[in-house]
Amino acid sequence: MTINSQRVAMITGGNGGIGFATVSKLAKLGFVVILASRNQKTSMQAIERIQANTPNARVESIPLDLASFTSIRQCVAEFQSKGYPLHILINNAGGSVPGEQASFTADGFELTFGTNHIGHFLFTNLLLEDLKRSAPARVITVSSELHNPDHAGGPAPDFDYDNLKGEKYYHPQIFYRNSKLANLWFAYELQRRLAGTGVTSNAVCPGFVPAAIAARRKSPISRFFYAQIMSRMPFARSLDEASSSYMFASTAPELEGIGGKFIVDGKEKRSSAESYNEEKARRLWEMSWEWCGLENNIPS
Predict the structure, then answer these.
(1) What pLDDT was estimated at residue 214?
(2) Mean pLDDT across the chain
(3) Which of 98, 110, 257 is nearest to 173 (CA)?
(4) Which residues are catalytically annotated?
(5) H or E segment at 177?
(6) Which long-range contacts (CB under 8 A, 24 or more apart) does 74-83 make?
(7) How confident is the model over 16-33, as a mean pLDDT?
(8) What is the pTM of this model?
(9) What's 292's DSSP letter?
(10) Adjacent-strand bridge partners of 93
(11) Quick check: 58 pLDDT over 90?
């Protein structure tokens, strides 16, 4: 079977956590899966684990640092040089950057927003023609219910264009929630711009997944807290449960040709009222386009 007769999926940050669980499932279904991630050593270890369980698995790795426009463009160029189709793109990588002061990407953006939104915005737009040629195809962007000020308490998003780099203040939880709101604006606006192309755009929330958080913690006490205590909470989701939502958005027949949805626990759910504001979504798109230095609008 040639590569052009197989279905190909690419996932950012698929070498651990929910992404790894998703890659394992896609590989078992016969997808050729491309891991786009920063740590190539971890990616190769992930591939070895997958192939040990699924000997015929086709999994490859391409370096990607979403905090660098140069790295993003190099990753896309390397993928395109392979001549592969692209049927599923899962924008999974990202997270929250702790600390009292803002950190920044190689291109000068606040690191959480720059990685979670801007990096994926550029990455997706550079791959859109590959997705269109491979249609029907799907783009899945990982957001979070934490974008909703009515969900789970804590500080609400405060999406202020004059504070995106922490010019006024920095609060890691607020900046994370801002980025997750941006993910939804991006996913919904992308769906509107893809109308008639055969490519759909949906957003997913994997829920609260202590195992994934524990894996990123450096402190043994913090790892134990999330892995052994928080994982027992009734609202917690396992890696398998979280990846099932990714798989539903990626492969469910009932979502063929359907976009502009927010998938939580494998079901469509309404996101916040603000996330459906088309004017704000359009403004973010236009600003992101300028920040990324993209030259032409997506062909209609």
Answers:
(1) 47
(2) 89
(3) 98
(4) 176
(5) helix 172-193
(6) 75/36, 75/123, 76/123, 76/126, 76/127, 79/10, 79/34, 79/36, 79/127, 79/130, 80/130, 82/3, 83/3, 83/4
(7) 94
(8) 0.91
(9) T
(10) none
(11) yes
